[in-house]
Structure to design on (193 residues):
């Protein structure tokens, strides 16, 4: 059984990836491992933040681990909020406030294309590997649905008519940015471990 620490305190993220785990891999959250503190995200890019979080946990535990960082990149806002997605409206990292600000900034705009981009950083012995997952879509005119977290209520993935928050976890996992990055990580583990 391979034990992998997922460097997150976000229960939604943990549930998403747990549902995608192949047999033989056991996911352990930071809370389960006894690491309760917030890891500072001081990087200028998603890549840097994922590396910072992963290195922090690897230095502390010496165990195989991975961290993810996600950004919502909106075309009409020149890629914002991007790496600042969590603290877009304020330092409180509040989902409702972030959504409100996003809809306000896009008010009157018909061009509403956006994408979620996730970077997963894995530390496995001396191997440091990054995996990227992207899903394209559009920003809605108002929040739709109640499942998921973050910007899910205002994001409709390409080829669909419902927001991520109107889908259950299983359906979101067939197309999401994080699921796509995680699939690449699992593939790497299959080939290398
Ligand atoms: P982080 O990767 O946890 O730092 O997330 C950055 C921001 O993106 C936060 O505001 C999250 O709520 C949001 N976010 C991350 N993943 C998702 C997702 O799958 N759906 C919607 N919002 C997300």
């Amino acid at each position: 059984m391979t034990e992998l620490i997922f460097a997150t305190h976000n229960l939604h993220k943990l549930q998403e990836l747990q549902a995608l785990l192949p047999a033989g891999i056991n996911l352990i959250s930071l809370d389960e491992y006894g690491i309760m503190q917030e890891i500072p995200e001081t990087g200028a890019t998603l890549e840097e933040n994922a590396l910072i979080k992963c290195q922090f946990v690897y230095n502390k535990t010496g165990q195989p681990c991975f961290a993810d960082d996600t950004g919502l990149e909106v075309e009409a806002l020149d890629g914002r909020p991007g790496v600042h997605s969590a603290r877009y409206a304020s330092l409180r990292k509040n989902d409702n406030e972030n959504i409100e600000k996003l809809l306000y900034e896009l008010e009157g705009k018909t061009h509403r294309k956006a994408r979620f981009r996730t970077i997963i950083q894995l530390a496995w012995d001396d191997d440091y590997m990054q995996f990227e997952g992207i899903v394209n879509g559009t920003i809605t005119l108002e929040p739709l649905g109640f499942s998921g977290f973050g910007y899910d209520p205002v994001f409709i993935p390409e080829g669909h008519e419902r927001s991520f928050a109107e889908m259950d976890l299983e359906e979101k996992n067939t197309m999401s940015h994080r699921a796509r990055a995680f699939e690449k990580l699992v593939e790497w583990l299959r080939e290398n471990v």
Summary: The chain has six helices and seven strands. The first strand starts at residue 2 and ends at 6. The mean pLDDT is 95. The beta strands are 2-6, 25-29, 65-74, 81-82, 113-124, 127-139, 155-157.
